[in-house]
Design brief:
One of its GO terms (molecular function) is DNA binding. InterPro entries: DNA_brk_join_enz, Integrase-like_cat_sf, Integrase_catalytic. One of its GO terms (biological process) is DNA integration. Keywords: DNA recombination. The protein has twelve helices and three strands. The protein is mostly helical. The chain folds into two domains: 41 residues, no CATH class; 191 residues, Intergrase catalytic core (hpI Integrase, Chain A), CATH 1.10.443.10. It has a three-stranded antiparallel β-sheet. Strand 1 and strand 2 form a beta hairpin.
Length: 291
Amino acid sequence: MVAGSDMAFNDAWRPFSEQRSESAGVYTVQRTTLELIISTCHAFYEHVADMGHAVRNPFAIKQRSRLTGQKPQQRTSKSLTQLEWDYLLDVAREMADSNPKYERSLFIVVALFSMYLRIGDLAGNDTWQPTMGSFFKRKNCWWFAACGKGGVQAEISVKPDFLEYLKRYRDSRNLSPLPASGENAPLLTTNSGRPGLSARQIRSLVQEVFDQAIQKMLSEGRSQDECDQLKSATVHWLRHTGATFDAEFRPVKHLQMDLRHASLQTTTDIYYNSIDEERAASNSGLGIRRG
């Protein structure tokens, strides 16, 4: 802007122009700077996907090696261990047993885990809000209908064991054991009964359960290493944990459909290449000489 009483654009303003001497040579971005930019963009696209937007992450791990010239690093697991999940579920149940207000927290934790939900599936979006009627029964099987931003609709299969937690939660809200067809009661409510919870509110409820589970593990003599994953966990880890646990037992196509991955290869790369212990065990008894 130019000085004076009237504000106007300064045509000579060039904030990103730099006069470089010939001896300085052509500017080349440092690798550390490039890695920081790519990492930031990658995290942004992951967050957008977690919120229910159907987007492809152009900064996924496979793309980083092409952009930076480095070999892909070993993937860091975003799944809880079986021990951590057992503690988390036990603590969530104990909290709900001691105070009915925590039935909501128990329901959220189990729903995210068992149906591989994103936080947006429970928080809703500008064009869609989940209701109890999002659960429906067809041919003796229960399903959950979700709609991401962009209008992408999906039907997610519901485990029979999950119905126990759905009934508990509905009972705490003085509703019938299972949803009726087209029931419009909000899926989640605030303590005062206002329909809907924001993503931030859901994260806060789940984090409280995480914190209580960590405290219980440490108080019962578990080592820091045994609760290491739980200390780093976010809400989205529950989706990954459920899918990782189930990958051993479900056909990859079925898992892909419930995860709502656009590509079957994505499901295979993340979940069927991550069960290293099972993969190693299946190979341990196979000798070199056969017959």
